[in-house]
Amino acid sequence: MDSEETKILTVFKSQLVKFVQDLCTQFPSEGDFLALKFFIEQQIPVKDLMYGWIKQVNKKDKKVKIMIRERNDIFFIENNPFRFMTEKRLEKFSGMWMSQSEESKKIIWDWMDLFIKISDKFETINTV
Q1: How far is CA 26 from the centre of its chain?
Q2: Mind listing the pLDDT tens digit for each residue in 99-121?
């Protein structure tokens, strides 16, 4: 792994951990987010996380990237942005998403924008 790739992956992981920590703070009774934070920090290689994210946002002619750019709630309601979630948990998250204030949603959308920006940079130096 070259140094540019390492830098990008390090930023991706640190920002992903911060994002999930924000979710833990916003939804303190949702242990799934704490489990996700542990999984990201300790269990899965960051390169696997990056490749998984890139695959998800680029599938179906980049439909997910378009949904994020357009702030389409369907991204959180019908897609599974958190792959570890079962259908039951996804339904619960979808309900939590719909009950969020516009400001809270904006913050989460901004995180999604950041992850796309980081992964786009990663793609420019790698063939994914």
Answers
A1: 16
A2: 889 999 999 999 999 999 999 99
